[in-house]
C-alpha cells in the first residue's frame, strides 16, 4: 500500500521547464517589437528574470498587483538599456510576450505519460506562485485533463503565496487529506521543500542544478530531473529515507 495518496506539484521549473516558454518567448517578443528589436536579448533576459528585490517585495507584500509588478519589471529592465516607455507600451510588450510565449509550450511525451501513470495511483494537484495563469500552460502541455482547474491552487487567485502555510492547507482541505498523506514535488528549496515539510508533508526536491542542500531539512528524495520520480513513486513499495535520482 502506498504511503501517500496525494501528490502536489509546483508548476514552473518543475513540471514545466521555463526555458521552453519564458526564455524563447521573450527572445521572440523582443525581436518582434520596434522598441526592443535591436536589444541584446540574452542580456535583457538575464535582467528581467532577476528584478531588484525591492520590486519582488512589493509584489509579495501586496503593494503591487500582479499587473503592476509586470509593468515595473519591464520598466526596470528597459531602463538598464536607457529605454523609457509609457504604461501603454509596457502593457503592449507584456501582452505580446504572453501571446508569444504560450506558443513555445508543447507536449512533453515522457512527462505526459509519467503524470498520466501517477494519476492512476494518486490524486494529483498543483500549487503555484506563477505570474501567468497556469491553466493555459497546462492546456498547452496536454495536462489540463488531469490537472483540472479545481485542482490548481494559484497564488494570484488565492491572495497568498508559497511559502505561506495557507496555500498548502487550501490544497489539503480540497482533497480532504492529512499532511502525512501528502507528497510535495518542486524545484524551490524554500517553497517546495522547507514549507511543505514544516506543515507535515514529505517533499521531493527537483534539484536540476545539483545544488547543496541549503538547510538541514531532509526531503523524501532528491532528483535531478522530474522524470526520475517514476522509479520512486511508481514502484510497488515506498519506504522512508532520502533517495537520490540518477
Mean pLDDT over the full residue set: 93
The number of helical segments is: 11
User: Helicity, in percent?
Assistant: 40-55%
Count of discrete domains: 2
Which CATH first-tier class of the largest domain would you pick?
Alpha Beta
**Major sheet characteristics:** 7 strands, parallel
Strand content: 5-15%
Q: Any low-confidence stretches, pLDDT <50, length ≥5?
A: none
Instruction: Kindly report how far apart the N and C termini lie.
Output: 25 Å
Total beta-strand segments: 7
Radius of gyration: 19 Å
The strands making up the biggest β-sheet line up spatially as 3-2-1-4-5-6-7
The name of the CATH superfamily of the largest domain reads HAD superfamily/HAD-like
Question: Which secondary-structure class do the elements indicate?
Answer: alpha/beta
Q: Spell the H/E element sequence.
A: EHHHHHHEHEHHEHEEHE
CATH topology of the largest domain: Rossmann fold
Sum up the overall morphology in one term.
globular
Using the 3D structure, state the CATH architecture of the largest domain.
3-Layer(aba) Sandwich
Quick structural overview:
The protein has 246 residues and is of the alpha/beta class. The protein is built from 11 helices and 7 strands.
Description:
Keywords: Hydrolase, Magnesium, Metal-binding. GO terms for molecular function: hydrolase activity. It comes from Fictibacillus barbaricus. The protein has 246 residues and is of the alpha/beta class. The chain folds into two domains: 6-17 and 106-244, HAD superfamily/HAD-like (Rossmann fold, 3-Layer(aba) Sandwich); 22-102. Helices cover 43% and strands 11% of the residues. The protein has a seven-stranded parallel beta sheet. Helix 7 (134-141) links the parallel strand 2 and strand 3 (152-154). Helix 1 crosses helix 5 (87-102), helix 3 (53-60) runs antiparallel to helix 4 and helix 4 crosses helix 5 (87-102). The model has no long low-confidence stretch (mean pLDDT 93).
Amino acid at each position: 500500500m502506498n504511503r501517500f495518496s496525494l501528490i502536489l506539484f509546483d508548476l514552473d521549473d518543475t513540471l514545466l521547464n521555463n526555458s521552453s516558454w519564458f526564455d524563447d518567448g521573450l527572445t521572440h517578443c523582443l525581436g518582434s517589437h520596434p522598441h526592443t528589436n535591436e536589444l541584446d536579448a540574452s542580456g535583457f533576459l538575464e535582467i528581467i528574470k532577476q528584478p531588484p528585490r525591492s520590486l519582488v517585495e512589493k509584489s509579495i507584500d501586496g503593494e503591487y498587483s500582479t499587473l503592476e509588478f509586470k509593468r515595473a519589471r519591464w520598466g526596470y529592465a528597459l531602463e538598464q538599456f536607457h529605454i523609457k516607455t509609457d504604461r501603454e507600451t509596457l502593457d503592449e510588450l507584456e501582452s505580446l510576450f504572453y501571446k508569444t510565449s504560450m506558443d513555445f509550450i508543447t507536449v512533453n511525451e515522457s512527462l505526459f505519460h509519467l503524470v498520466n501513470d501517477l494519476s492512476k495511483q494518486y490524486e494529483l494537484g498543483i500549487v503555484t506562485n506563477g505570474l501567468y495563469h497556469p491553466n493555459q500552460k497546462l492546456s498547452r502541455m496536454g495536462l489540463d485533463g488531469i490537472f483540472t482547474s479545481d485542482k490548481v491552487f494559484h497564488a494570484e487567485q488565492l491572495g497568498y503565496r508559497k511559502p505561506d502555510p495557507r496555500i498548502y492547507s487550501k490544497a489539503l482541505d480540497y482533497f480532504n487529506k492529512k499532511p502525512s498523506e501528502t507528497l510535495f514535488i518542486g524545484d524551490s528549496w524554500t517553497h517546495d521543500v522547507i514549507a511543505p515539510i514544516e506543515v507535515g508533508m514529505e517533499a521531493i526536491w527537483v534539484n536540476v542544478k545539483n545544488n547543496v542542500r541549503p538547510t538541514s531539512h531532509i526531503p523524501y528524495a532528491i532528483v535531478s530531473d522530474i522524470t526520475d520520480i517514476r522509479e520512486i513513486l511508481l514502484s510497488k513499495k515506498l519506504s522512508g529515507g532520502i533517495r537520490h535520482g540518477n
